[in-house]
Amino acid sequence: MIDRSKNRATPTRKDFQSNQEVRWCPACGDYSILSQVQKIVPTLGIEKEKFVFVSGIGCSSRFPYYMNTYGFHTIHGRAPTIATGLKVANPDLSVWVITGDGDALSIGGNHLIHALRRNMDIKILLFNNRIYGLTKGQYSPTSEQGKKTKSTPAGSPDYPVHPVSLALAAEATFVARAIDTDTKHLAGVIERAARHRGSAFIEIFQNCNIFNDGAFDEFKARDVRDERVVRLEQGKPVRFGKEGGRGIRLRNCTLEAVSSGPGEEPPDCIVHDEKSRSFIAYMLARMEYPEFPVAIGVFRDLEKPTYGELLDEQGDFRIAGDTAEALRSLLHTGETWVVGNE
Amino acid sequence: MDEKLGRIRRQQAAAPGIMMAKKKISDKPSSTGEDRESVVIRFAGDSGDGMQLTGRQFSNTSAIAGNDISTLPDFPAEIRAPAGSIPGVSAYQIHFSSVDILTPGDEPEVLVAMNPAALKSNLHDLKPDGRVIVNTDAFTGANLKKANYEASPLDDGTLASFQVIAIPIATLNAKALEGIDLPRKEADRSKNLWALGLLYWLYDRPLEPTLRWLERKFAGNDILIEANRTALLAGYAYAEASEIFTTHFRVREALIAPGRYRKITGNEALVLGCVAAGILAKTQVIYASYPITPASEILHGLSTYRRLGVRTVQAEDEIAAMGMVVGAAFGGGLAVTGTSGPGLALKAEAINLAVMAELPCVIINVQRAGPSTGMPTKTEQGDLLQAVFGRNGESPVAVLAQSTPSDGFDVVLEAFRTAVRHMVPVIILSDGYLGNGAEPWKIPDIESLEPIDMFHPEGGGKPFHPYERAADTLARPWAIPGTAGLEHRIGGLEKEDVTGDVSYDPANHQRMTDLRREKLKKIADFYPPVEVDGDGEGDLLVLSWGSTFGAVRTAVGKCRGEGRSVSHVHLRHVHPFPNDLGEIIGRFGRVLIPELNGGQLLFLIRSAYLVGAEGLNKVEGRPFMVAEVASRIREMT
Fold first, then answer.
1. Which end of chain A, N or C, is surrounded by fewer C-beta atoms within 10 Å?
2. Assembly ipTM
């Protein structure tokens, strides 16, 4: 894919900005994500015309209109299927799916699971704001239990789904989480997803300042985030807090947060391993505030043949020979007989 | 004949100890042959008795022998219903002929009933004075009870008006297979081949095609080849030697156009058409589908054509399959899916996306009896209105109907040409009867197959307008991702005319809705003139579509032969209608529309032409009989 024609100028962020006026509400978390994607894609060494952004329905799904690339704003929940068909037809493309918590986990839950388990080489960015925005404020499958919304005046009885757990269980080969306002970290995670070979899934905590404002503030706010968010880094102990004074360890098959004395390192911390298939990634993904800090970063990054690679291994799809030869081979194979003179 | 018997004896000699019938095979034929123009027979047995295989072998052999054939497989949806029960009966009817035939025949003259349930559920179709060949071994108390017979129909006069040939097929088969190292239960599984051998003798069929097939089918398992071969030869020899038949019948080669032929089912024809479309377009075919009866064979078939550029995806559900088709079409592939009625319902949403995004794709609907799950293995034409109308909003799609099994090849090629030329989704309506039914097919001259023109614009500095239309077709350009300079966004939201930008402007929505409808109408400008079978004007026009072609054409021909003023138009293009159809309808006094539904084409024709057309409708899960259609024509003329 890194086959850029030498005499073409390196694209810039500006090249990826479309002429469409961005119509998200002012201060929506989506702006930040758009900006990070526009910053990363020019750096990947892929020609601009090879990017395709596919989306479903919802606020996040307007995203393709704002990228000056090929884009397809499709139907509710089905973006992974359209992206799959596109990637099968044209494996050279860099195919991205932009989706939300309702689109990907409610109406499109089935398609998300199957796109991930097939290890389709597509990048799925799930904007999780834990609310339905475009339909004006009903609870979503990631809303906390008891949430009072227009459709649940007495509080939602539903237990929420955990997107990262689901993606891990669906055998995605790259699973990560990021926060809209932590832009540098977000950009890093997007870049790693883009460079991953296979299905990549990022849950992005995204603030809906109209219908669910401050949903993530209790742990992501600037003044508390060091104590309440843990950044996973490959090969490093899982530590958080000021100067890394707190950590996560495994005890009796469960996680626990531990603290160290002043100037000491917290004892027995888990060393993060994205390459592991163990259940620890799943446990880290399910850490919730206030019992635990919330984990962000890459939970899993595995190398596994992609759907396209496996298909290619089974044989060549190119038609051997000319049209007439191919047609003869198609129509005259098997039992045939002649009536009169041929 | 002598030569053939000699061959059988040699084959028997090669397998010593396998003597099947008690009587010796005499040196001269024990019976005389009698010529017949056409014959209809039916094999019926338990689902586990291999009746579909037996029927397919008989039809293959007959086709190879030069007959015209038409078949009607009829099997339960259950994989293996309780053995011996009526719901477990599986049947296969074959019409083979020395003249051109179009239907599997109304009434069989021979019914092979492998057990009481098969007899019970098929006897009513047998011709008066027809032959019924029963496997007496299966007429046990328990089996009779399962078939709801209080007494054995072999003894109580039930079969008095038929010629009954009662044979202990399982016993004779087991005897023939003595000496082959197979448990009795396994040996019994070849009794269908024994019955096939019997019928091969009765209708003077060659044995070689089935013997060749056995070698292929059981390659590497010599015991099974030997057992099945022995069973086939034993049945054949028994018929010859036992003198139960006073004569055997010859159905001469049909006088059909010279050329190379193959036997083809409707689903196979669709498969070959899809592959050929890719070759003719020099583009890969992407077939995404979710398994569903009776369309799954298309997925199975296409999955073997990777070497000819076909990629198949078994999707997670019907919706996903259609989503993948839309994505593949956006990517520039020849995108196609196959399904049946319940699947078409689920696909409506993504088909509508293709309507809005104006992307070319083909949706094959092998219809089955509905509503809901309905009767999965039984045929019906119940989805015409679903295909034409079953989506939200003003949503025009093109709908083509397959008319015979082999027509599947042509209909798929036309569907792809239309889809690509006009940038629309095209629905093909087939049905279970066509999908599973078989006929001989004259392989088309390869030079006669025209290329499918694929046009994808290149970027050239000018601003690209994804909804700027061609004058003759109103099609928008098919610019595909990966083309530098043509980056654009499409989607399900209403588009601004020309630019394709999102637009909620009232006048624009009216204009775009009109354009989409107008674009669809223009498809009819590319149709050939409607063919009228019979006089161009008269008392009665019979108008039909889809799989009823054979029965209606035959019935109309018969009635015209009786001096009646009746003509036939069979519609390939059910949406939009041909431009000249209204004028043709106007030249007839009355219009009859036979359909295997409650009157769906009737509804469309009345609405389009304000004509008092009349319907002949049934939904019994099986095709029209010629007699049913002819009888209504006689009432009306």
1. C
2. 0.96
Q: Which residues of B touch A70 (CB under 8 A)?
A: 481-482, 487-489
Query: Is the pLDDT assigned to residue A9 strictly greater than 90?
Result: no
CB within 8 Å: A110 and B307: no
B20 pLDDT exceeds 50? no
Crossing angle (nearest 10°) for helices B318-330 and A79-89: 50
Q: What is the mean pLDDT of residues A154-161?
A: 96
Is pLDDT above 70 for B24?
A: no
Q: What is the mean pLDDT of residues B509-521?
A: 98
Residues of chain A neighbouring B488 (CB-CB closer than 8 A): 70-71
What's the 3-state SS for B422-488?
Answer: HCCEEEEEEEHHHHHCEEEEECCCHHHCCCCCCCCCCCCCCCCCCECCCCCCCCCCCCCCCCCCCCC
How many angstroms separate the CA atoms of B138 and A248, rounded?
72
Most B-contacting residue of A34, A51, A53, A75 (CB-CB within 10 A), to test interface: A75
pLDDT in the model for residue A318:
81
Nearest neighbour of A88 by CB, restricted to B328, B352, B501? B328
Residues of B with Cβ-Cβ distance to A332 under 8 angstroms: 260, 443
Rounded to whole angstroms, how far apart are CA atoms A225 and B579? 70
pLDDT of residue B14: 39
**Considering only CB atoms, which chain A residues are within 8 Å of B502?**
65
- What residues of chain A lie within 8 A of the CB of B60, using their CB? 335
What type of residue sits at position B151? A
For residue A73, which residues of chain B lie inside 8 Å, CB to CB?
489-493
Is residue A271 helix, strand or coil?
strand
B279–A323: do the CB atoms touch at under 8 Å?
yes
**pLDDT tens profile A270-328:** 999 999 998 999 999 999 999 999 999 999 999 999 999 998 888 878 887 799 999 99
Is there a contact between B169 and B137 (Cβ–Cβ < 8 Å)? yes
CA distance B491 to A318: 31
CB contacts < 8 A, A to B, total: 230
Residue B404 near residue B456, CB atoms below 8 Å: no
Is pLDDT at B480 greater than 80 in this prediction?
Answer: yes
Mean model confidence pLDDT for chain A: 94
Q: What is the pLDDT of residues B169-218, one digit of tens each?
A: 999 999 999 999 999 999 999 999 999 999 999 999 999 999 999 999 99
Separation in Å, CA of B184 to nearest CA in chain A: 33
For chain A, domains (ranges, CATH) are 13-236+273-313 (3.40.50.970), 239-271 (no CATH)
User: Smallest CA–CA separation between A68 and chain B, in Å?
Assistant: 7
CB contact under 8 A, A78 and B262: no
Cβ proximity of B91 and B126 under 8 Å: no
Domains in chain B with CATH codes: 2-24+32-245 (3.40.920.10), 262-448 (3.40.50.970), 538-636 (3.40.50.920)
Q: Do A89 and B333 touch (CB under 8 A)?
A: yes
Nearest by CB: B64 against A111, A323, A337: A337
